Structure formats: C-alpha cells, structure tokens
Amino acid sequence: MTTPTAPIDNPTAVQHVPIRRRRGRVEMLWGALAWVVGIGMFFPVLWMVLTAFKQEGDAYTDPPKIVFTPTLHQFSEVLHSGIGTTLLNSTFATVMSTVLVLALGIPAAFALSLRPVHNTRDALMFFIGTKMLPIVAAIVPLYVIVGDIGLLDNIWALVILYSAMNLPIAVWMMRSFFLEVPGELLEAASMDGASLWTAVREVILPLVSPGIAATALICLIFSWNEFFFAVNLTAVQAQTIPVFLVGFITGEGLYWARLSAAAVLAALPVVLAGWLAQNKLVRGLSFGAIK
Predict the structure, then answer these.
(1) Alpha-carbon torsion 185, 191, 192, 195, what sign?
(2) How far is CA 28 from the centre of its chain?
(3) Where are the beta strands (DSSP E) in 216-264?
C-alpha cells in the first residue's frame, strides 16, 4: 500500500492547493459574470436582427413572438426606399473625414510627443477643451456660416465638421501611441544619415500603425453614427443614414420591423470594418499597456 508523500514532504504545497482552487473559482465566477454582461449587452442587437426578419404584425405582438416565419420582405422594402443614396453619403463623409483627420492628426501628434513644441501642454488642453463645448450651443453660428458659404445640404459640410469633431480625439490618442516609441530610434536613424521624413516613414509609422488603425476605426464609428449635424445641416441631397432611420418614425406609428431591417443594413459596414480591423484594434488599444 502506498501513501502520498507530497503533502508530507512539502507542506507548502498543501497550502497552495486550496489557494489555487479558490483562485480558480474566482476566475470562473468572473468569467461567468463577463458572459452574463456580454449576453445582456448583445441581446438588444440580437432582438433587432430577429425583428428585421418579421412581418410588421409579428413585431407588435404582446408578449413578443419568439417563433415566427422569417421573411426578407422588410429588407426589400428598405432597399427600395432610397437607402442606397444615404449609405453612399454616409460612406463618403465618413471616409473623407477620417482621411483628413489622419492627414492632420499624425503630424500634430508627432510634434506634440517626439518633437515637443513650445507650449505643448496648452495646445493639448486646447484640443481637449473643444470637446467640452456642447454641440447644440454652436449649431446656430455653424448653420449661419455653412449657409453663407453655400454648403447647406452639401456633403462637404459634414466632411469638414466631422473632421473638426474627431481631430482632437485623434491627436490625443495618437500622441499616446507616439509617446511609447523610444526617442533614441529617431536619433539612431539620424546618425545613420536618414532624414526626418525617412525616419518617420520607415521607423516610427510602422511601429505606431496599430494605434493609427485603432484611431481611424474610432473616427469611422463616430462619423458614421453622427446625427445632430446631419439632421440640422442636411435635407435631401446630403442626407445620411442616421437621418434616414428617423424617417420610419411617422405620425401613423413606428414601423418596428422595417426600422430594424434598415438598422441592420446601417450597422453592417461598421461591424464589417470592426471585424476586419479587430487585430489592429486590439493591438492599438493595448499598445504600451504592458510596457
């Protein structure tokens, strides 16, 4: 007959076993809690997708109908109601404003991190201070200015405003990524004879590319979902997808199924962009977190 020797020979191991078990239970509890929270947050999205495949009558039942016959009728109705133009407008305003933000934000973030300029702190506070102003407080002067330069109901007005809206956040985010790059890399590249532009293009930008990708994705999401400027400065020609969705709320009632179908189509581009850039996004948001 054999007897266990580890608990006798190594008393410390006896103490570690219950600690590991307790730690394992705590981790399982946190994991279960994370799943519950995740499912709770995802449930409205799931319900929206299910409602998009219902008839209007099935979407109004009380209690809600779980078992129903799926149909694509609502998607067909939405696709024939002019959503294509609004999707193109949103895509143009979102992409162009993001490109403009990156073109202006990358040099600014570089200058405010690796090559600090005079009064860097004041410049940063100015950037973040612009986000403190309620947008509703500036809509009247903006409306007058946009009207005077002939850009009312023009998609370029949204491109400019979305760029101004996202630029402060982009500069702050990208500056934090640039700060993680050792300044010695620039000095080493300079000693090897590389110009500043060459050093930035071939040394710095590849290192911070995950952070730039994460910043671009956040700017894309903010611009795609923006509603206040679009509803006040556009009418027909430059209408974007968030304003289009509001059109399903009429005096006759709310078309739940059709609105859900339109919302699914509106969310698809952002979901697809996030799925394609998920690796870059995770790397960018955790850049330097374990330094």
Answers:
(1) positive
(2) 30
(3) 249-250, 253-254
Question: How far apart are the C-alpha atoms of 111 and 108, rounded to whole Å?
Answer: 5
* C-alpha distances in Å from residue 125, one per residue of 13, 57, 119, 122, 286: 54, 53, 10, 5, 24
Contact yes or no for 101/139 (Cβ under 8 A): no
Measure the CA angle with vertex 274, ends 161 and 35; round to 5°.
125
Is there a contact between 174 and 245 (Cβ–Cβ < 8 Å)? no
Residue with tokens 């696709």: 79
How much is the pLDDT for 116?
Answer: 67
Name residue 253's amino acid: G
Structure tokens at 120: 């860097």
> Residue type for 282, please?
V
**Nearest alpha-carbon partner for 273 in 98, 84, 34, 85:** 98
In angstroms, the Cα distances linking 47 to 43, 53, 68, 210 are 6, 10, 13, 33
Long-range contacts (CB closer than 8 Å, 24 or more residues apart) made by 109-114 = 109/170, 109/171, 109/173, 109/174, 109/175, 109/177, 109/178, 110/178, 110/200, 110/204, 112/171, 112/175, 113/175, 113/178, 113/179, 114/178, 114/179, 114/181, 114/183, 114/186, 114/204
Distance CA 265, CA 91 (A): 13
Q: Is the link from the previous residue into 63 a cis peptide, with omega within 30 of 0?
A: yes
d(CA 169, CA 97) in angstroms, rounded, equals: 13
Residue 160 confidence class, pLDDT cut points 50, 70, 90: very high
Q: What is the pLDDT of residues 40-79, one digit of tens each?
A: 998 999 999 999 999 888 887 878 888 888 889 989 988 8
Tokens of 18: 């219950």
Residue identified by tokens 């790059």 is: 181
